[in-house]
């Protein structure tokens, strides 16, 4: 009796289990994603980056021009340029140039640094 009962349970489980799991999985077509806004976001981010790099470069150029036009001895000018390079340019914090706030902070850092060098050299 036990053998018959176990055989019937096995047949039932096998039949139902096979019919449930034996068929191949049905996949549907992938959903189409709308990425049209992604290009605009990337372009905006790249433009912000480019503008901030230009802003920092223009600041450095303005400071260098200002130092060149100072009516002081060539030796003092060279000392100021060296100080600007060592204490300002090489000490610039690393920033994310896509951030306007960080770029503005860097510009302020450069002006504060050169003002300190002018007062102390």
Notable features of this structure?
single chain, 121 residues, mainly alpha, 75% helix
What does this structure look like?
This protein has 4 helices and no strands. It is mainly α and 121 residues long. Helix 2 runs parallel beside helix 4 and helix 3 runs antiparallel to helix 4. The longest helix is centred in the middle third of the chain and has 34 residues, at 36-69. The mean pLDDT is 84.
Q: Which structural class best describes the helix and strand composition?
A: mainly alpha
Helix share, percent? over 70%
Number of helices: 4
* Secondary structure tally: strands: 0
Taking the sheet with the most strands, its summary is:
none
The whole-angstrom Rg is 35 Å
> How much is the average pLDDT?
84
List SSEs in N-to-C order.
HHHH
- Model regions low in confidence, pLDDT < 50 over at least 5 residues: none
Beta-strand proportion: under 5%
The end-to-end span amounts to 106 Å
> What is the global morphology?
rod-shaped
Topology:
Elements (H helix, E strand, L loop, with lengths): L1 H20 L14 H34 L4 H16 L10 H21 L1
Helix pairs in contact: 2-4, 3-4
Quick description:
Helices cover 75% and strands 0% of the residues.
């Amino acid at each position: 009796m036990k053998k018959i009962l176990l055989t019937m349970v096995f047949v039932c489980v096998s039949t139902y289990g096979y019919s449930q799991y034996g068929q191949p999985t049905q996949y549907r077509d992938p959903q189409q994603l709308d990425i049209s806004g992604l290009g605009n976001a990337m372009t905006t981010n790249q433009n912000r980056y480019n503008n901030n790099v230009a802003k920092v470069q223009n600041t450095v150029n303005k400071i260098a021009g200002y130092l060149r036009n100072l009516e002081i001895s060539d030796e003092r000018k060279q000392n100021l340029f060296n100080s600007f390079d060592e204490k300002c340019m090489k000490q610039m914090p690393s920033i994310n140039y896509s951030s306007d706030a960080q770029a503005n902070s860097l510009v302020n850092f450069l002006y504060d640094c050169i003002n300190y060098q002018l007062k102390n050299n």
